[in-house]
Input
Amino acid sequence: MARGDTCGQFEQLVLTAILTLVEDAYGVTIHRKVEELSAPKSITLGAIYVTLDRLEDKGFVSSWLSDPTPERGGRAKRCYKVETAGESALRESMLAAQRMWNAVPKRWRKAWA
Amino acid sequence: MGLKWIIRALLPSEVQEHILGDLEERGFRSSDVAPVIGAAWASYFHREWLGPIPNLAHASVEVLNARTQQLIRSRRAAFLFYTGAYASVVIVRHLHMPVNPLVVFLPIQFLFRGGAPVEPTFLQTLFTRPPDPMECYRAALKASAATFFMSGISGLVLASSFPNPLRGYLTLAGFALLPAIVYRARRRFRELSFLPELTKT
Output
């Protein structure tokens, strides 16, 4: 696998959140979804921005500014969508986790479940 | 209104719009503001320094162009600052003695004409993806070598313009910084050596 194709655990959470939110993925909604996915851990909004920028730099997501809305004081949202590279990186991470899970002996799996 | 104005002033201009909107939507919670400002600047400086180098493989053309422009702007600003500093040192040094204007003028011209046009052009070459991966690799290596060469020459010219005790300190500082510079250069070349592999995708 080429360098830059992999993503860390937090990046996986953010990518999953964007995939789940489909059309409505922007800072606030992504943060809410990531907090939901990583409960009970609390996540700062700042961590989400840094990760989104990093994912964009890696080419895993792309972003655009939407039209301004009144509930945001007439300010635009930066919306995100997962690119093909992001999808494959996430799939690869999921498969790795799956392989890891399958490698764990059955008795431990039962105890952890 | 006051709080919004302060937060706006504390954020990098490129992200003000959407971050302020997000904060407004969440009701300007105090627990959000400090981490968001820190994160926005951390991300901004990271992009300023690294540019799109590690991301050549997957980034879209728009993202690459935006990062390239951002990096060129920051390099240009740094270059102007550097030239200004150089000019002030040269001018102050020659204020109290009869000066041939060329002594002041030529090094500045050298830096402007030698450095300014080269830097953005090479950066553009470095970060724009040509169709042929090998061409991309060669261009990136050339660009990197030229950037380091220009930085070295400019540094030497600047150091030589300082009066003697300061020149000594600068040389010492240069030697002290050498391992960091070598590390950075090696890292840059290592990143570039991945290019042919990355551009296959």
Notes: The longest helix of chain A spans residues 84-103. The beta strands of chain A are 61-65, 78-82. The mean pLDDT of chain A is 86.
